[in-house]
Specification:
homodimer, mainly alpha, Multidrug-efflux Transporter Regulator, Chain: A, Domain 2, DNA-binding
DNA sequence: GTCTACCTGATAATAACTTATGAAGTGGGG
DNA sequence: CCCCACTTCATAAGTTATTATCAGGTAGAC
């Protein structure tokens, strides 16, 4: 648990970065580094990890702003596994929180609409089926009628089918 | 469901960006924009949304790479329903970028739902029309038939209407 | 006292990124 | 035929970001 501190010279060698670059990063990224009584920087292992990350992101081509943003969302979040509710970090990350909650909200609405759509869809399907059945029935009925007319009509037995029709 | 397309000139005015800047963004961000037969760019509403987002991120100071990253996490998965929980960080806990991408995702989903809704509505309208037509037709036909049966059938002049029916 | 390792602030030199312009060409309309 | 609104490719110009250097200082070690 003994915290180990590195001076800028060591870090510089360790990470192969010029000291002035380290100072530059510290400023531009607004990274806070401890100081001793004399004002000399004291880098912790964690700081070095952060720097390694920064270097990686830089390689990827992210600019200072993006890296700073990324760090903001990292620094304080390693402990909590998956934050059930909207993450904290209220100090810096107002917009982030906002975005997340917005997403939640919209997502919920979306789900609701999707549910309703499903219901609608089902109703629609039933209706279509019904209509289909109806039209088929109608065809059948008419065909039947026509058949009757053709056969029985030819025999002049009009009475019979007429009454049958009326009976219905 | 009618997709509306904008030419670069319109988009330029709409978003207040020079056309060459739009082309630059397209290249640097590797955004894909549809073209017509002549090669002219056709921007969809979704494209414009994307551009708005890009502009916002630019204002925040993110560089091309960062924005591209943010967009990438989005473009890929439009179909997946609603992410139940906010996904965990991939490479580096880059939650902000993810949030942004989530927003895009969700709003895309939103559009999709709206599209589906419109489709459903259209189907419903067609069905109603169809149903109307059918029932009117059916009534008409049956009435006609019944009329025939009542009048002519009663006079035993089956031949005449039967042949008429056959003539049809 | 001189070295070494650090600090700050300012400035210079580069590199990278964005935006603006120009040239040359296409196709639709009036 | 010319104008308009596009296209591409290339290049210039303008901005920012990053890296390097220099100057002037402090404190501990030998």
């Amino acid at each position: 648990m003994k915290e180990r501190f590195y001076k800028i010279g060591e870090v510089s060698e360790l990470l192969n970065i010029e000291q002035h670059t380290l100072r530059y990063l510290e400023n531009s990224l607004k990274i806070k580094i401890r100081r001793d009584e004399r004002g000399d920087r004291l880098y912790t292992d964690s700081d070095i990890d952060t720097l390694r990350l920064v270097l990686k992101l830089k390689e990827k081509g992210l600019n200072t702003t993006a890296i700073r943003l990324a760090l903001e969302n990292v620094e304080e979040e390693p402990p909590p596994p998956v934050p059930e509710t909207v993450p904290k970090g209220p100090l810096v990350n107002f917009e982030f929180v906002e975005a997340v909650s917005l997403v939640r909200q919209v997502s919920e609405q979306n789900e609701e609409i999707i549910r309703q759509n499903k219901l609608l869809e089902e109703r629609l399907r039933l209706l279509e089926e019904k209509l289909d059945r109806y039209s088929r029935e109608r065809d059948a009925t008419l065909n039947e009628l026509i058949q009757l007319l053709k056969t029985e009509g030819a025999e002049s037995k009009s009475k019979s089918w007429l009454s049958r029709l009326r009976g219905k």
